[in-house]
Design goal:
heterodimer; A: 497 residues; 17 strands; rod-shaped; B: alpha/beta; five-stranded parallel β-sheet
Chain lengths: 497, 133
Amino acid sequence: MGASGDTPERFEKLYTMLLDSMPASILLIDQAYRVESANRNFLIKSRLSANQVLGQPIDKVFPLPIAKHMNLRARLAEVFRTGEACKGQRLHYRAPGLATRTYYYSLLPFNWRGQVENVILFMEDITEMVRLGEEVRRAEGHLAGVVEAASDLVVSMDLAGRVLTWNTAAVRVTGYEESEVSGRPLTELIAESYHAMFDEFLDRVRQANPADPSPSLEPMEVELVGRDGQLLPISWLCSCMRDSDGRSTGLVAVGRDLTERRKFEARLMQSEKLAALGVMAGGIAHEIRNPLAVVSSAAQLLLSGKLTPELQQECAQKIHSGVQRAASVIEGLLRFARPADRGVKERLDLCEVAREAAKLTASQMKIARAEFVARLSESPVWVLGNANLLQQLLTNLMLNAANAMPPTGGSICLSVTQRANECLVQVSDTGQGISPQNLPRVFDPFFTTMPVGKGTGLGLSICYAIAQDHGGRIDIASEPGRGTTVTVSFPAAEPTA
Amino acid sequence: MTRPILVIDDEPDMCWVMQQILLCEGHQSDAVTTAQDALARVQQQAYWCALVDLKLPDMDGRELVRQLRAVCPALPCVLVTGYLYTDDEAVQADLSAGVIVGFIAKPFTIEQIRGVLATIPTPEVGPSSAASG
């Protein structure tokens, strides 16, 4: 400013240029509420000429309704009186022939020697900003609507696993309001047995490589604990949220409540089990009638009164052991028929399960003329499982093997072994085998090559579900005419502390 | 002196009670637990009749009856099983074809055994003619 040759004209030119280059409308108003100067932006926006503005009372420059709405006179008077700025007011202004625009205006006092000489009316056109803001809000509202209307749980979390958003379905399923869980680690709502798995999963998300477009986050089943303390089986599909550099910033988890499906599956499993019982009914009848025949014959012999004391003794023993045999068949049957409580898992010995299944299917093996061999590990093979479900799994596999026997019979081998952390159950038969085109379909529900009424076609798909439920998997190798080997592998149970 | 009865059942206990009953009824008997043993036996010894269990480890009882009769066409066979009822189609077919002369469902009474045996003619006493070939 202190350059030589400073003249009032130079200042005026600089002042005008500064004002005109501003992308905002600026009016300088004097104490008589007249416009002392107006910048180019104002003249363009208002479609007025300098003559129509300069020296005019402010009420004339703005259409009356607007000036009134703004309460301009009173506000100006206030600024002149107090010397304090009046900031952040919003104004809608529509110049003749133009669309309404939205302005954000302030009144700034110009103090000179202790007196407010002028007030600057500063108006910023925020029409576009408002429009963009509304658009963003609309898009956000739409997205929020989609998330809210989803019947699946939609939960977003930061990298520490703390809940950021929690949709209506999540509230409905868990009973927790968003305000109760927001900011809390999701782990607090996860059933304890899944904590390690979930933490390991979060680690993987945190370490996800930015170059990898979608790190493999396979669906996983994690149970939440609802507000009422109930365990809620939920199948989760997670994806990473990324920033513009591709770094993970958090994750979105979409969860499907499996409670209803579980109930349905349980009913299906139970009906399939009853169907298996139907298949076994003949064999079971035989299995019970044989000891009954021994018992009844021995009793009749005793009644005849013709026996020596030694023979009487022997008859009584036959009766005793026959009754025990029939009772154990019935007990096995009842245990098998009982509906499984799928949630209950305990440490159990797979060899024990295999022995039970072998006993239950013994008569079926005989009917199929199968030579049955059990090769069970000498030491217990511990898994974490549900005895009832595992027995259903093994019984199904054994019945399938018996079914595959040709009329001339064959052999069936059931083996239980442990290899490191893997527990294996294998059922191999020398039966008719499965054709290569049918092999990929054997786990499909209702797929069967048996005549109508002979098989439900659900056996293997239920075996599959049970194996999955235990963190295991089933592999089938088969050669038509030679036989089939089904291998089920389970993770070994942690050693007891 | 009548010929003995052959009892074929895979369960030793079943064989034991059956033999005791037959003994009380005044019949001698032999017992075997497999079809192979039964086929071998009938070639060494002439039997009055055979009581055959339906489910044997090495052969279906109905099939065994056919094979027994192929060896000894005159051997009357009675099917004894807990697996079928008297009105079963297969049982009825074998009865009417004369493949079996009787059917006994397990569990049975001594009277039922006595009743079935009563329908089987007593063979002529004399040297066996069954063990031919």
